[in-house]
Specification:
Monomer. With 247 residues, this protein is of the alpha+beta class. The chain is built from 4 helices and 15 strands.
Length: 247
Amino acid sequence: MIHLKSPQEIALMAKAGAVLAQCHQEIAKMVRPGLTTLEINDFAERFISEHGAKQVTKGYKGYPFATCASVNDVIAHGFPSQEPLQDGDILKMDIVCSYDGWMADSCRTYAVGKISEEAERLIRVTKECLDLSIPKAIVGNRIGDVMHVVQQHAQQAGFSVVRDLVGHGIGREMHEEPSFAHVGKPGRGFLLQEGMVITIEPMINAGKHEMFIDFDGWTARTYDGSLSAQFEHTVAITRNGPLVLTE
């Protein structure tokens, strides 16, 4: 069942989203070669708590950390670790928090030191996939209208869109209905309604879209070892258009 949110509930989700946006701004200042993703995880957990919100991923279905830290060929759900980041790495930090029981979800990709031109282009195109798709998230459109923009922009750049990890509804629960891949055709899929809140979170690979789950049962990697980037916002569908809650 899809749970439509009231303007008051969306406002509470926006408070959670504001904490995430501020947290990502601070992480951007921190990221450098030699830093560990476990240090970033611990910072994010403290930051969220100090700003009146709660982390929600640690303990979710046994997941052991407050964030997901995914480096290079790791698409998503990577475990923060004590391994230092290297010059040229790209890092995805995916964070969820709640404020008064209402959640927001956001991911950004960070360059570590000097990265390759291919990595720079992958990050840029992935961010463009998110930014270009959000304006299509309006009442009366279908999810295919939104996701077609993601798929078309990524593929025109020579990249591929991950199919096996999906966007989803969010509210009092981290994962609510509906769920959807970031590929689609205009006019297809479920209808966007006022009060829906969804995550738009394209995961774009430099190589092919296939992936596998690592031995830990969580870490998703590109099957061909290529780089992967991701950007994510929590977006409310309102009568006045899409409202990004995590910027």
